[in-house]
Amino acid sequence: MNSNNFDYFQGSSLSDLFTQDVADASYAFILNYPATANWVTYPNTQKYLIQDGSDEASKTSYSKIFQNEPWKNLAVLGNLIPGILVSPAPKLLLEYWHEHLNSHTNIETLKESIYLDCLNDTGRFDKFITLFPFDCLKPEKHAVLPDTHYHLLSKATLGELGVPCPKYQTYNLDSVSIDDIELPEFPYLIKTSHGLSGEGTYIIQSQSDLDYCFAEIKKYAESRLLSTIIVSEFIKNVVNNYCVQFYISKTGDIQLIGVTNQIVTSEGNYIGGLIHYRENMSIFFDMIAAIGQYAHSKGYFGVIGFDVLQDRDGYLYVIDANFRVNGSTPLCLQRHTLLKVSKEVANYSTDYQIIGTLESTLKALKAELERKDFIILSAQEFVNYGKIHTEIYGIVTGETIEEMQHIEQNLKNKGLITVG
Q1: Cβ proximity of 131 and 322 under 8 Å
Q2: CA torsion sign, 136 to 140 to 146 to 147?
Q3: Disulfide: which of 3, 137, 313, 366 matches 289 by Cβ 3.0-4.6 Å?
Q4: Partners of 379 in beta bridges
Q5: How far apart are CA 164 and CA 358, in angstroms?
Q6: CA distances, 25 to each of 73, 129, 139, 390 (Å)
Q7: Pick the CATH number of 156-233 from 1.10.600.10, 3.30.1490.20, 3.30.428.10, 2.60.120.10
């Protein structure tokens, strides 16, 4: 593993990334996360606990788990690896991907009420690439051993990766009461071990923040959905928030996917990312080499994304590592497609919205879509106060930041707004 000789991945799909590692068996990609809500047929409530909301009112929705997020990854899946869906993507969206992203997807759609039983019993697929281990999927059906994957995905594993990270302490709530934990002075962070998309991360700057955090953690603990929490140092004077992504093969070879500047809410929830496709990633090479070597030693292969804060003195701190396809992976995979049309900058958001149907949206934004000024990764119609709206996970592009901002304004003039 030569940290001075990492090359960019040359393809544009997840199938292209994984192709080197899926020749030994028949693989498919389960495109959704597991969930714990009451409506879920196969909840992750036994072994591979996931924190996706502390009570029913705050659980991650069906539309995010089974529609918006899976469709976003389906857009860049390619046709070598079949994608497993519970909710079929709209026909118009599939046609748009085919025309504008050269996407020829291979899809298997199964009912939510039976899909994991079908996958356990099928002889068509030997292994499934997952974003997170599933309690109800046989261990031997996981492409990466589920115990290994779960360990890697834990925020408590950060200190094992061999990279600079904030000081933190891990606590097992089965052996220590949360009220007995000795806490540092404000500010600091408390994290659950396997929070989903920012859920379970609490920035503690006051007693009221702490009271809220403890109430949430106690709800998780009472529901037996949490056993480990992390109390972490708060990194001050942050000037950059990066997500660095790469692929580690079964043989330990590394390919660069890209680096984004992350956009998060004040609560720490991820809502998008900005990328400069020609940005030099060399400042992250030592971190990539260390994390890649650790992952390879554990038997992991696949996409890895790690979050890095840079303070005003230039110091870098890894604050999280996600051993899975990340939220902005589809944005990074547009690199070669967009550079061919001289677009070096792009911004991804999960919060675009426009009044009208998907069909009317495709017509209204036809010119921008054809020029790849705007790329749609996921789109879903909904009704609000009697009007049909379409919410979109999308990418705005440009040759420069200034041109991208000009395109964003033109799109806004056509009714495309961000609601985050």
Answers
A1: no
A2: positive
A3: 3
A4: 392
A5: 45
A6: 22, 12, 15, 39
A7: 3.30.1490.20
> DSSP E strands: which ranges in 173-269?
188-192, 201-204, 228-233, 238-248, 254-264
Compute the distance between CA of residue 194 and CA of residue 177 in angstroms, rounded to an integer. Answer: 19
Nearest CA-CA partner of 283 in 255, 253, 254, 315 = 315
Residue-wise pLDDT tens digits, 160-186: 999 999 999 999 999 999 999 999 999
Instruction: Tell me the C-alpha distance between 148 and 203, whole Å.
Output: 28
Return d(Cα 375, Cα 334) in angstroms, integer.
10
Q: What is the pLDDT of residues 359-400, one digit of tens each?
A: 999 999 999 999 999 999 999 999 999 999 999 999 999 999
What are the structural domain ranges in the chain? 7-153, 156-233, 341-418
Q: What is the architecture, at CATH level 2, of domain 341-418?
A: 2-Layer Sandwich (3.30)
Q: What is the chain's Cα-based Rg?
A: 21
